[in-house]
Amino acid sequence: MLSLSAVAAPAYAAPPPTTPHRDPGNGPERNDVAATDPPVSAARAASGENVAGDHSGYPRKTKLRVYPENPADKSIKLGLAPYHALAPKLNALQARSDRISVEVAGQSGLGRDLYLVTVTAPESPFETRRQDAWRSLIENDPARAARDPFLRHGYKAPVWINNNIHGNEWEGTDGALRVIERLVTSNDPRTADLLKRNRFYFNVTANPDGRVAGTRQTSQGFDPNRDFVTASQPEVRAMRGIAIGKQPLMMLDEHGYVENTLIEPTTPPHGQNYDFDLYIKHGYANGLGMEQAVKALGRPETAKPEIPFRDYEPGSWDGWAPIYTAQYAMYHGAVSFTIEIPMRVNNAEYETQPVAELQRRSVINTEVVEATIGSTLDYVDRNRGELIANQIEMFRRGTAGEAQREIPDGFVPGFGPEDRYRTEFPRAYVIPAGADQRSAVAASRLVDHLVANDVRVRQADRPFSLSGRRYPAGSYLVDMHQPKRGLANVMLERGSDISAKVPVMYDISGWSHRLLWGASVDIVTHGRLDVRTHDVVAASPTGGVDAAPGRDLALKLVDGKDVSAVNDLLNRGLALGRADDGTIIVPASARPAAAEVADRYGVRFTEARGTAAPLSRKTIAGAVGPDELKALRDMGFEVRPVSAAVLNAGFDWSRIDLLFVSSGLRYTDLTPAAKDALRAFLARGGVITRGATGARFNTDAGLLEARPVAGWEDGNGVVSVTGGTGPVGGGALPDSFVYGPFWFTDLGPSVQVEQRYASGNPLVAGHWRTRDDGTGGPLEAAGQAAVVSGTSALGGRAVLFGTEPLFRDHPKGLYSQVAKAIFWATSK
C-alpha cells in the first residue's frame, strides 16, 4: 500500500560538493546535430489552457481514444508502459473507481493525447463550484481569502505531479500510474480521508512523442524543459494551462538520471523575482522528507540522495531561469521540485546494457518516483493549512505591491549570503500605442503572451501621462500591483548580470521579452496610476493598409510577422520588389491580397516611394538547429533540412537559393563530389552562418575573409549591440542574444560590419566570464564585429552571425534581421 506516513528529517552531514551530469542539448553542443523533419507531419495541438473550466463535479468520466499497438515504442524494452497502453489503463480505472477523472489537456506535436488525471474524493457540482471559487479568491482577492475560515478548512489542496517531460526519462509515468492506482482502489480509511482534503493532478506523460521515440526532445526537436517562458511547443502550452488552471500548492517534475537521485531545492542563484522565503521553508523540508522516503527503499542505489541546495556548489544546479517547469510553476504559487531518478537507462545505456539490467534499473527508478510522490502527498496533507496560507501570502504581497522580505542567515539550515537574490519591482510597465511603438505587431504579440501566462494587462481608454511621458489611448499598462508580479517582471525586466556571483551556470542565465521581442516597453518606477483602463483578454488588431487607392504599398521588415506576410504574398505568385534599404514593395494591383495578409499577420502597409528590384520566393537548405528550423518556417520560408550526410548522399541544389549553416555540417566531412556540387552552388547562391559550426564552415569553404574569435563557450545572455547602416544591421534592435558568442576580426576589404558588440561591457543580463587564461570574456568582445556581410571569394553573398538571433524561438524581435540577411544574400 502507498506509504503516506510522516518522516522526520534527521541531522545530516553534507557530502563533498559535486557537479551533476549535464545532459545534451543545453547549449553550444547543439551545433553538432542538424534538425530533421519528424517522420510524420505534426498535428496542430490544442492549447490545453481550459482544463479548469468544467464545473460539473467529480468524477468526470472521459472515454479516452485508444491508439493502435506500437511494438516500436521504446519504453517496451525497459518493461515500462508503452504509450498505447495508457488509455486502456486509465479507461479501466475510471470504470472501476469514482475517485479518478481523466481529461485530455492537449495534444502533442504529432497528435497524441496528453492525459491529465485528477484523483480526489467525489464532488457534487456545487462542491466543485465552491472549490473553484476559493481557488479564484486566493489569486484575485488574497486578503479576503486569508480571512475566510471556510476556505481555510474546506479548500482541497491542489498538488501537481508532472512526468516524462523528457521523453527518454520514462519512469515518472510508471511511478505515477502506481500511485494513481493505489489511491483510487485502496479501501484504507486514511486514503479516503486524504482524498477528501486534497486534489492530486497527474500529467501522466508530458512528452508522449519523445516517450515513444526514446528522445529527450519533442517531435519538433525542442527540449520542453527549456521552453516555459516562450511556450513554443504544444506540450508546454498544455502544462502552462495546468499550472494556471489548477494553481497547485506543490508540484513535482519527475526526471532522470542523476546517480543517487537528485531532489531540489536548487543551488544559488535563486530567481530574483521569487518571494523565496515563501518557497524555501517548505521546499527544503519536503526535500528532506523525500530524501528519507527514497533512502527507506533500502536499495544501495538509493542510499545517498543529493539535494543541490545542501550538497552542490553554487550555479551547478540553479533556480535562476524561468525556462524550467519547476521554476516556472513557482511564479504560479507552487512550492516546486525537479526530481532526477538515479539509474540511467537512456542514450548509450539503452543500446549497450542487457535488457535484464535495463529492466532492473527501471524497477528501481519507478520505486524512487513512487517514493517521492508518496512522501510529497503526505507532506502536503500534514502541512495543508500552512501551504494554503503560503500561496495566499504570495499573491497578497503582489497585489499590495509590498517589497520582498529580507531573509536572514539560517532561515533554513545552510541559508546564507550566497542564497540572497532580490529585486525592486517597478510600479508599472507601459507598452505604448501609436508612433511611440516600434512595432505594433510585436506589442500585440507581447500583450497576448503576457495574458496567456496569467499576467494582468489593462488598456487605456483615453490618453494619459505617467512619469512625465504622454501616452495615447489604446496603450497597454501592466500594473505591477498584481498577484503574479514575479512572472510579469521576469518577462519584462532586463535581467541581471550574474557573472561575478556564481562560477558556472547549468543553462542560460539571461532572457527578456521586453528587450528581445521587438516591442517598445517603458518602465514606470513609482507613483500613482490614475489611468482609466479596461482588462485585456486579447490585444487589439494591428493590421491595415495606410495608402491611397491605386498606389503601390510598402512594408518595412521590422518583425518576423512582416516577413510572414511577405512570404505569404510571394507564395501566391505575386510580383513583389525589394528596395535598396530592404523595404518590400507590393504593387497596387495586389492591394486586396495585402489587406488580407495585413489582417492575418497584424502588419501595416504604407505608401511606397521609389523603385525596387524584383523579389522572388526563397528556398533554403538548412543545416540548422530545431529552433532555427521552426523560426524560419514560421516566417514562411521553405526550408529543406540538410547535413553532411544528406549532401554526401547527393543533393539537388537547382531549386535552392540560400544555404544556412549552424549545425551538423562540416565542409571537411564532405566527399569530393559533394564539395564540387556545393562550390558550384556557392558561386551563385547566398550563405548565412551562425555560431561555431557556421564560423568553421566559412573558414573551411573559403567564403569571407574574417577570422572568427570564440568567446567563453558557456557565455550566454542578452547583449547590447550597435547597428550599422548595412542591409542586415540597419534598423536592428539595440540588444541581441548570445550563447557561446563569437566575433570577427582581421576583416578583408570587401567585408562589411553589420553589427558590433557595444563598447564597455556588452553583457546586459546573463552569465559570461573569461576563461582561466583571461580570454573569451565580454570585455574582449566589446566593440568587435558581431555580424558581418560581404561577397564571398566564390561569388555568392554571405552573412556571418556571431550572435543567436533565433535561439529557442525566444528572441522574436531579431527574426526580421535574419530575414533581411536572407533577402540580401539572395539578391544580385
Architecture blueprint of SSEs:
Elements: H1 86-96, E1 100-107, E2 113-119, H2 125-140, H3 142-147, H4 149-154, E3 157-163, H5 171-185, H6 189-197, E4 198-203, H7 208-213, H8 234-246, E5 250-256, E6 262-263, E7 267-270, H9 276-295, H10 308-311, E8 318-319, H11 325-330, E9 335-341, H12 347-352, H13 355-382, H14 384-400, E10 428-431, H15 440-452, E11 458-460, E12 464-466, E13 469-471, E14 476-479, H16 485-492, H17 513-516, E15 522-524, E16 533-535, E17 544-546, E18 553-555, H18 560-571, E19 576-578, E20 584-586, H19 591-601, E21 604-607, E22 613-615, E23 619-623, H20 626-634, E24 638-641, H21 644-648, E25 658-661, H22 672-682, E26 686-690, H23 691-701, E27 707-710, E28 716-723, E29 735-739, E30 742-745, E31 752-757, E32 763-767, H24 778-781, E33 785-791, E34 797-801, H25 815-825
